[in-house]
Amino acid sequence: MKKSIGLFFSIILGFVFLSACQNSVKQSSSGLKKIDFILDWTPNTNHTGLYVAKEKGYFKDAGLDVDIKLPPEDSSSDLIINGKAPFGIYFQDSMAKKLDKGAGITAVAAIVEHNTSGIISRKDAAITSPKDLVGKKYGTWNDPIELEMIKSMMKKEGADFNQVKLVPNSDSNSITPIENKVFDAAWIYHGWDGILAEQKGMETNFFYMKDFVPAFDYYSPVIIANNDYLKSHKEEAKKFIQAVKKGYQYAIEHPEEAADILIKQAPALANQRDFVLASQKYLSSQYASEKDKWGQFDSKRWNAFYAWAKEQGLVSNDLEDKGFTNELVGD
Description:
By secondary structure, the protein is α/β, with parallel strands linked by helices. It contains 13 helices and eleven strands. The protein folds into two domains: 6-114 and 219-311, 3-Layer(aba) Sandwich (D-Maltodextrin-Binding Protein, domain 2); 117-212, Periplasmic binding protein-like II (D-Maltodextrin-Binding Protein, domain 2), CATH 3.40.190. The chain is 40% helix and 16% strand. The strands form two sheets. Strands 1, 2, 3, 4, 5 and 11 form a six-stranded mixed β-sheet that branches. Strands 8-7-9-6-10 form a five-stranded mixed β-sheet. Helix 6 links the parallel strand 7 (137-140) and strand 8. It is globular and about 60 Å long. The two termini are 29 Å apart.
């Protein structure tokens, strides 16, 4: 769900971007503190806890009026970095390049405890591990970190990345072009595109990237915050994250009810209830192994990915213990 979502969404989200840039933290007419939150993509089950917190009044109980906004294409982090909004959703792997350049952002909560992304392919392509990508068409969005991760997995199995046929992937989901044989395989999040493939009855193979390179069990997605905001609004930030935590804890315990709240808050999903519910049931089991520990980061896992990125020359600086905190989400 990090990939391009197409021209249509670019136009629609562009209008939303304009409103997102105006007074992202202010007092609402109700006396509540107004906060803008920028999503990474169109509403989906990665976001359910946020919508639950809004619907159930957890934000209001914390004295907050939270406006959940769609981003301009591929720019959620830039809004946070530039102080146009205090919070948003991003990804640890994508943060590497930003942190390496000194961007003032910090990951304040992990939405999902472990990395649920991996490589999906048509069953007839016979791709069950990274080495099987040799001679196959891989749908890529041409991100240096993405390609280096594929290369590292293949190298570990003694396979040559240069023998993979790279095909640009600009589709709003990766399942349709795989089904239509535009390419054989793509990197997806199982909780969305993987469930979509199951719902369509496609015969596929899938493997988690973390199962081949442990350093790839990084955090994706995460909630990020602007560093200046955190310094000047520490208590407000903690109230916000604690309300979000309650939302995700509710989704862990009540996946069906949470899915219906997501659909209510994002009506475009109304005609896909079976799919949303299946996705929600999967992700509700993945948000956290223990609901009280939702959002927490393991420093060893966080650092392992950035150490790998440094070894591959993807970042110039040592990012150990940089860019995350457990202070707001708590123990």
